[in-house]
Structure formats: structure tokens, C-alpha cells
Design goal:
The protein is an all-alpha fold. The protein has helices at residues 3-18, 24-40, 45-72, 86-89, 94-119, 121-136, 150-175, 190-213, 215-221, 226-230, 232-255, 270-282, 286-313.
Length: 314
């Protein structure tokens, strides 16, 4: 094999470990938070860009940590129906994946220094807790994903905190002095919190699909995800509730918060959501759920663009 072929194969292996198909979960909160910031007149481009870079690094670092710890703890086996894991398959050594995890989280912290300057102590606390929980999702003495807390982690950090935090750093850049020690007035609003709920719901739904697919192998490995604890029916009900949340929130913005008709634009994705839900309710195999996993990520991305666009236009 030539050196070029080796390099290409290693590049592909690192892309597999980074799981770029999960990046909609990092981009969607920034898109929605920025759309709301534009609507409210507090848009600040540099904080928005840095918020995305930080979120993407935390997402990738979490993916690296998940790949590494699932392999060394025996949760990833040859029987698993999901996408190839580079540590378990031997494509990249465990030591290299672990180092990549540490470097990626360190870069996330470095990126966050600018956001701390803009947003002050609240962003420092949120950023450090986010990085810690990204590692603790599968690492540490009490890995969140192994004890049924993964869904809550994603809902809070890739939904509530990510959207509200994106709005916060932009509003703080416009309305407050740098290095604030408290939360400045007007930087955390009920609209920002409400706007975070659809992103939280759809991001968590991605994890539900993943865990429904892996339910049997996770149970055998002792990985007590929420799907393992609840079973197929309750997990499907959770999935449906998360989707329902995403489509109720725009109605609240229109009827309860006096926003224009543009906020209803995400409803155009309902047929696509219904197609995905049908798969989740009828299948458990990787042949069906691997595409459903990617489709849910695409739904999150399109929904976020529609929601943000509706906020900006009307």
C-alpha cells in the first residue's frame, strides 16, 4: 500500500471517529440562537461564530471520548449494528483516540476564552461544565450514558444551554460590558429559553434512535441507556414526545408571544418527521435505523434553518 493510500485511510478513519454527521447537533443551536438574536436586534457575528466553533469542538470531543470509552469498556463489539467505531475496530489505537479527545476539549476551552471575555463568569461556568460533561458522558467513574442520563445530557447541553448560550453571548456583546460577573439584563429571555426547546427535543431524538438501535447489544454490555431501562415502547413514546415538543413551540411563538407567521415555517418539515417516526415505531434493526439516524440529523438541520429564517424574516 502506498503512503498516499495509508494517509487517505487514516484521514477517513479520523473522520469516522469525529462523526461529522452529528455536527447538526452543534450547528442547530447556534443557527436558532442567532436567528432570535437578529430578530431582537442583538446580533453579534463574532460571538456567534465562536459559539459554533466551541460547540462543534465539544461535539467532536464527546464523539472521540465515546469511541474510546465504549471500546475500552466493552460496549462496542462486532455485533453492534451502528456505524464503525475506530477504536474497537483497530483503525486507530486507543492511545491516539484518547489524546485526540484531550486535545479537542483543550481547543474548546481555548476557543471559550473569547466567549468568557464577552459573556463573563456565567459563560466560564457553563463552558467548563459542558466540557466536563462531554467527557463524563462515557468517561469517569459514573458515565452518564451508561446510567440512563445521556438523554438528559443532550437535552440540556445541546438544546437548552446551547441555544440560550448562543443568544446570551451575542446579547452580552451588545448590551453589557466585557467580563461580567453576573447575568446582564436582557441576555437570558423567555423567548431564548423557549426557542431552545425544539433543538433540545430533536437533538435528543437523535440519541433515542441510536439507543433503540443498540438496545440489545448495550444491555449485553451492561450499558444501561434509557432505551435499555425503558424498553422499545416507552422509548418510542419518548421519541414521539420529543418530536411533538419541536412542533408545538412555533405555535407558542405565534399565538402566545406575538411573533409573525414566519415562526410557523418549521411546520413544513412535518411530513419528513412523520416518515422518520414511522420507521422508529416499526423497526429496530440497523439497516433501517442507521438511515433514520442520519435523517433525524438532517431534520434537525433543516428545522433549525426554517425556524431561524422565520424569526429573521417576519
Amino acid at each position: 500500500m502506498s503512503s498516499a493510500e495509508v494517509e487517505i485511510s487514516r484521514t477517513k478513519a479520523w473522520l469516522m471517529a469525529a462523526r461529522p454527521q452529528t455536527l447538526p447537533a452543534a450547528a442547530a443551536p447556534v443557527i436558532v440562537g442567532t436567528g432570535l438574536a437578529v430578530h431582537e436586534g442583538v446580533f453579534a457575528p463574532l460571538p456567534a461564530v465562536m459559539a459554533f466553533v466551541g460547540a462543534a469542538l465539544i461535539q467532536i470531543g464527546t464523539n472521540f471520548a465515546n469511541d474510546y470509552y465504549d471500546a475500552v469498556k466493552g460496549a462496542d463489539t462486532d455485533d453492534r449494528e451502528g456505524f464503525t467505531r475506530v477504536t474497537q475496530s483497530g483503525l486507530i489505537s486507543p492511545e491516539q483516540v484518547k489524546l485526540a479527545t484531550l486535545v479537542t476539549f483543550a481547543l474548546a476551552i481555548l476557543t471559550g476564552t473569547y466567549l468568557v471575555y464577552v459573556g463573563g463568569v456565567p459563560i466560564l461556568v457553563v463552558g467548563l461544565v459542558s466540557v466536563f460533561c462531554g467527557w463524563a458522558y462515557t468517561g469517569g467513574p459514573y458515565p452518564l450514558g451508561y446510567h440512563g442520563l445521556g438523554d438528559l445530557f443532550v437535552f440540556v447541553f445541546f438544546g437548552l444551554i446551547a441555544v440560550t448560550g448562543t443568544y446570551y453571548v451575542q446579547a452580552a456583546a451588545v448590551l453589557a460590558e466585557p467580563l461580567s460577573t453576573t447575568i446582564p439584563a436582557g441576555t437570558v429571555t423567555r423567548e431564548a429559553i423557549a426557542a431552545s426547546l425544539p433543538v433540545a427535543g430533536l437533538s435528543t431524538a437523535i440519541l433515542v434512535v441510536n439507543n433503540v438501535r443498540d438496545k440489545e447489544t448495550d444491555a449485553e454490555a451492561g450499558k444501561r441507556t434509557l432505551a435499555v431501562r425503558l424498553g422499545y415502547r416507552a422509548s418510542r413514546l419518548e421519541f414521539t414526545a420529543l418530536f411533538a415538543l419541536a412542533y408545538v413551540v412555533p405555535l407558542w411563538f405565534w399565538l402566545g408571544a406575538d411573533f409573525g407567521l414566519g415562526v410557523l415555517l418549521p411546520l413544513v418539515t412535518l411530513p419528513y418527521a412523520a416518515m422518520i417516526a414511522r420507521t422508529i415505531w416499526t423497526r429496530t434493526d440497523g439497516e433501517a435505523l442507521n438511515p433514520a439516524l442520519e435523517q433525524t440529523g438532517k431534520l434537525l438541520a433543516v428545522y433549525a434553518l426554517c425556524f431561524a429564517g422565520g424569526l429573521v424574516v417576519l
